Amino acid sequence: MDTKILVVDDDREIANALDKLLTMEGYEVVKAYNGLEALDALVQNDIQLILLDVMMPKLDGLSTTLKIREQKNIPIIILSAKSEDSDKILGLSMGADDYVTKPFNPDELIARVKSHLRRYITLGDVGNITQNAQITVGGLKLNKESKQLLVDGVPTRLTPTEYKILDFLLTNAGMVFSAEHIYEKVWEEPAYRVENTVMVHIRRIREKIEINPKEPKYLKVVWGIGYKIEKL
Amino acid sequence: MGTKLKNFSRNTITKFVAYLIVAIMISMAVIQLVQVDWEGNNIEPLFVETYEESNTFTYEVERSFREIYSNFKNNEETLIENENQIYYITDGKEIITNREGFNREDFINYSNYFYEYDQGRFKSNSRVNEKSTFWFGKDTTIYIAFKDGYMKEKQEDWNDANYILRDQAIEFSIYMVIAIILTIYLIIVTGKKPNKEELQTTWIDQLYSEILLALFILPIIAIFIYVVDNYYYYTHILRTPSIQKSDLYLVGIVTTICALLSEIGLLALIRKIKEGKFIKDFLLYTICWNTKDFVKSLFDGRRYAKYPLTKNLHQRQLAFIVGSGIFVLLTVMLIYTPLVILPPLLELVLIYWYVKYNNKTYDEINKGINESLEEQMKLERMKIELITNVSHDLKTPLTSIISYVDLLSKETDLSDAAKDYVKILDEKSERLKNIVSDLFDLAKSNSGDINLNLETIDMRMLVEQTLLDMADSIEDLGQIKMKFPDTPIEIVSDGNKLYRVIQNVLDNAFKYSLKGTRIFIEVEEKNGMGIVVIKNTSSYEIDFTVDEILQRFNRGDKARTADGSGLGLSIAESFTHVSGGIFKVDIDGDMFKVVISFPLARK
Fold this sequence. Notes:
The structure holds two protein chains of two kinds. By secondary structure, chain A is an alpha/beta fold. Chain A has helices spanning 12-24, 35-44, 61-69, 85-93, 106-122, 160-171, 179-186, 195-209; strands at 4-8, 28-32, 49-53, 76-80, 98-101, 134-137, 140-143, 148-151, 154-156, 219-222, 226-229. In chain A, helix 2 (35-44) runs parallel beside helix 3 and helix 6 (160-171) crosses helix 8. By secondary structure, chain B is an alpha+beta fold. Chain B is 59% helix and 12% strand. Chain B has helices at 2-10, 12-38, 55-73, 104-110, 148-189, 209-238, 245-275, 283-299, 302-305, 308-333, 342-409, 416-447, 459-469, 495-511, 546-550, 568-578, and strands spanning 85-90, 95-97, 113-118, 121-124, 141-146, 454-458, 480-483, 490-494, 519-526, 529-537, 582-588, 591-599. In chain B, a hairpin with a 2-residue loop joins strand 9 and strand 10. Chain B is elongated, with a radius of gyration of 51 Å. Chain A binds chain B through residues 11, 13-14, 17-18, 20-21, 24, 55, 81-86, 102-107, 178-179, 195-196, 199-200, 203, 221-226, and chain B through 388, 391-392, 395-396, 398-404, 406-407, 410, 429, 433, 437, 440, 444, 451, 453, 455, 457-459, 461-462, 464-466, 468-469, 471, 493, 495-496, 498-499.
């Protein structure tokens, strides 16, 4: 079965380019040029994922997101020229799953689309359910018994130290820890000048779990304070 | 030698000693005066050599004449018993004498000190003195002769007194001369310090000239009153012509204290004169000057002439003042007539007119201010909207360009040349993207419309994290020399912004460092500030100023071809400012130094 993606952008050239890019990846694309058209298209088609522009005539992207969320739980990726943190937070709080700023890197966008689809289609729509032996944050799923990490359903290998760090941060998702704190928890030794050691591992973990390690979605540096896993 | 003397004379201790000596000398001199004064001593012996020539003796003669005459007039039969003189008085009818049978010749022969009053004229055989001008009547004739022995005795007393007084006078003069010389010395050196030519002043010199004048004069008056007061006490109440020693000590202490105070005042005044502030520092002068200024400002409307509303206010104020003045004058002129009721009524009308039209003008001014405020806010809103719109309008086509370049690069049947072109397009569109993003960040930051997330962060950790985060793009980590403190440096700032600042500055340092040189990063705590210093040696000659480097798009010529937007340092500076820090660039030859400082967080 072809996966249908709805592309919504009032700029037809961008919509067309996205159409081409996604078609090349084997997806079927439905286009809409404003929020109202998008809502119509959603009714008429069996859509699995939406790419949604924010600044559009008639019904803007944020209102559209709200409307869609009244009925459907499909992944919504917002595309916007607004790059402020506050804009991103607003978009995500409206119910979007991801926020990509324009101009975007096409390869990265495709990777994100794939990641969200994998999670939505293969894993079903599960929220942040934390069972005893399993922690889930966004597309990350860590099984404590088998010591296995799934990133959007894909098994990912971790070294023992990386596993311990990720375990600790995932268990306390949303909380910020200093390098010293993490070191003492993971290595179980008194920490002295460990920023470098911890950061090296964090970077390696990022390369394994993030689509774009430069702009991490999960494992973030809180500048001048420490590190955290974003609570999604 | 000259400087040595100069320094010695300007030495504080030297001056202080001189200051003390002056006070002591003055009090000694006053004690000398007091001794003479309070004992009621006659000081004439000091100036007149012989008793015979002195005023004192003249008074004695006059007194004798008057006594004899009044005695005679009152018809008192009793003779004046006086062994020191013989006399004879007659009015042509009656005669009174204490030496019967003596005629004028006998009187002259009897003594060298013979005085006669005859037919309204006064005569004498001594060298003295025609000063007396008494009048006893035309017919009266008086002869008086003082005994030679008596006069001799008097002269000896006179000489003794002369010796004592001369000693006292000499002592007094010495004290006074020393006091005056030292005072002149103090006047010359006051306010001067060794090795310093400019005038030194203290808090006392800030006082008004009136106060200093009072400080100078009042102690002198106090001494004077004290001395005179005690003179009366001694000569008129006690009537004992000998002074208690304890009284002299008291005089000495009082005079010394007064002299010390007076000197302070005098020297402060002298310093004021030296500074040329003597007149200006009078309170009276200041009051006059301010009054003059105020009166001038009442009538001088030049300041307000440019603005019609304030001009109106000023003219109305002027009319009000002049009108009120005239009505007051009229009231005074008409005070005893029934018309006196008129000026107050007119004044009421004037007040009504004044208040009514002023209120109108105030309303107009308020309206103007509100309008201009609204205008300003509108402009501000427009500016922010413009930034957002321009940013959107730039980013939308750029998104298309990047997307289609990507699609183009995925075409398989392109020629090799076309593939090269696409690659260039890809690179340049990426750079354009960075420039637009930086430009937007800078514009937002400069317009002040920026969201800040201020929290307490560790500056040391932030710099470390930033460095580690950049580790990928740093070719040679050994190139960096770090100096970090052992304890965290807590500041309040926006971590994300500060990260961009440090990243941009480090980026700049890596990009433009001379090959083989080191980059120094220092984090330290100094004077309540957390400070990051980043130093590097430039790979090209720095031929621009600190101001130029921070101006947008300004870079050294060689760097123009490098990638990046050229806005890195501008953004770093702007972000540092909005998040509450200070951003400073130092250029020393080829050394490029950036100093970023934030106030420490309060614990």
